[in-house]
Amino acid sequence: MKPRQQRMLAVGLAVLGIAIAAAFTLRAFQDNMMFFVEISDVVAGKHPKQRNFRIGGLVVDGSVERAEGSLDLRFKVTDTACELPVSYTGVLPDLFREGQGVVAHGRLGDDGVFVADKILAKHDENYMAPEVADSLAKHVEGKTASLRQGTNRCNPQ
Amino acid sequence: MIPEIGQFALILALSLAICQGVLPLIGAHRNDASMMGIARTAATGQLLFVAVAFACLTWAFLSDDFSVLYVANHSQLSLPTVYKISAVWSAHEGSLLMWILILAVWTMAVARYSTGLPEAFAARVIGVLGLLSIGFLLFAILTSNPFDRLVPAAADGADLNPLLQDPGLAIHPPLLYIGYVGFSVAFAFAIAAMLSGDLDRRWAKWTRPWTTLAWLFLTLGIALGSWWAYYELGWGGWWFWDPVENASFMPWLIGTALIHSLAVTERRGLFKSWTLLLAITAFSLSLLGTFLVRSGIIVSVHAFATDPTRGFFILGFLAVVVLGALVLYAWRAPSLDSEAGFGLLSRETFLLLNNVLLVVATALVLMGTLAPLVIELLDGGKISIGPPWFEVAFLVPTLPLVLLLGVGMHTAWRTQNAKSWLAVLRIPAIVALVIGVVLPIMFYGRVSLLLAVGCVMAVWIIATSLMLPLRSLRREKGSAGMTRSQLGMSIAHLGMGLFVLGVTVVSAFSVETDRAMQPGQTLEVAGYEFEMRELRDVQGVNYSAIEAVIEIRDGGGEFVGEVRPQKRQYLVQKNWMTEAGIKATWNKDLFVALGDQLGNGSWSVRIQYKPLIRFIWLGALVMALGGLVTVSDRRYRLEASKASETAPATPESA
Q: Taking CB atoms and an 8 Å limit, are B599 and A66 in contact across chains?
């Protein structure tokens, strides 16, 4: 093959490969993107229906309940404005604790309980997932104002 | 006092780096031998002072000098000595210092073993490495000084993160960094070639061993990281497509492409500008990876705000390195014409496909890693891309890649006769098809499409990799055997086959279950019986733990082994940590981890059966071994001894 043909072959193959990859990726992205939804938005019904999403916040103090000897667990997660009940079956990560930050993957059941299939608490105690930190910061800001006005900051559907 | 000496040594190292980065390059340009001669001396001096700085920081850790902020944050009085040493590179400042030290060692190695290079070329390579060194030293001194004092000094330190108190993680970062930094040598060779304007086949021959060496360390580093994640935090997973992992994987993929492209450049004088581009990309991705990980940029845009100076310095440095290299490339690369051609059915074509597929794979990983960042910047909401996407998307380029790997190895340079080619490849193809389907049925009792494809591919690679060595063993006395390069290639590809086999079997036949368990109870998982004999308290040096003693028996009641998973609480940070109990044999791992206390004396446990999981890391180890054998090929050393000759490289033997 002449150098010119070689180059054409190389470019052609590269373009073809990238085109296939791009088409494929975009299609698969749709199915695998998992949105992070704030607790207040979930409570207000603004969450993706019929598909998995992520939530995050603080585990409410004293909310962790477990049937003795069972792997089934229930707890509440708050963004400081609203609370959402979560159920989970399985082993918890080491840094899961009441009052600490947590991220959960799963979907919302018809009874308004978030059924988690995966619970994440980060490796490092000082680290909080950025989306959780944002969500908390946003709602804590509104806290003092609403306390003064005596309004409830959680506006469910 | 000692920390100040360290600080001072770092500044001296910087001034030497400036000499090393500037004078030899000017000297090479003006053909001034005395200025070029500075390169090696300056490199030696720089290594000396960086080593002093590193020793000072290590000494501060060993002597529990909690008046040094970095030590106070990452060590503690009762920390075992080994971990006091590994704590030196456990966080940003210290690991940056280690990066600088490793760069100085690589530079020294190049200076020492590059005596066969033309003087001007060697001066340029060492000069470029000096320029890189200036960047990193400035970064350390201006934004990330490990010797900053804490006034008043702390009585005790905040302890090393318990997750990092592990032998695997003590050596994982150094290996990974040797790999990352090693690509800076390939980068420097590329820049030097473009500066001097002549890039012939000798250039590829000089670059190859250094690139392979860097690649093999990166391979080991990644494998060790994966292994650590498996037993220390992964709850049994070995790869999570986490941004941090991807950051190390992308340079590996491009580095692999570079090794193969260099082969073509050395053998045939082709793909010159492409090889240069890969060398630049491999190093740029290493930079991007290591810095994004340490600065937290890739996790979120917001981590930027926590330390803007560091973030901006990184961006600035990256921009200078990448843009500088690309501008030089745009200016010089068009003049690098290759005169040779090749047939459609030739090894060149297959290596070209290898490169295209590896670049596509890298692009996919990069896309998945950066997509959350980009979508958030575009206000598209906060998303994450899960492992399922990576697992499927990654197969698209890698399936053809492993298929063609077996073909390419047995295709001749220039042009290949189709008839003899089919005759050679027929046997391994049949072997792969038969064994690949029969194997899973025989050992695991079932087969599915993806599983069969995976097994056939694995056997295909293994069979085709073994053909050359087998033929060499059976050859007639006196005829030429394999070169080290060919042997190394066969070994590395064999490692790839073992890896594919491991991945396929693990993903198809793993059993994973969370159960409740109490002392005296027996659970049955994957045909094995797990009996909890005892639950007891154990005291470690700097932690206390609850330990379960679990006996494992096979279906027939035969004793298989005993594992002791622990739940540890470290005394200083009060964190709970899971230490899995693993019974490992060559063909399977039985994995038990303690979860939480469930009341009434029972605990949640995660029990896993992982067949052939050791093949994943064994495969990586064999790949690295293959790299080592290649580096030891005689022709790289022969070239050094007859360097003054201007004769072109020896005619290709393979």
A: yes
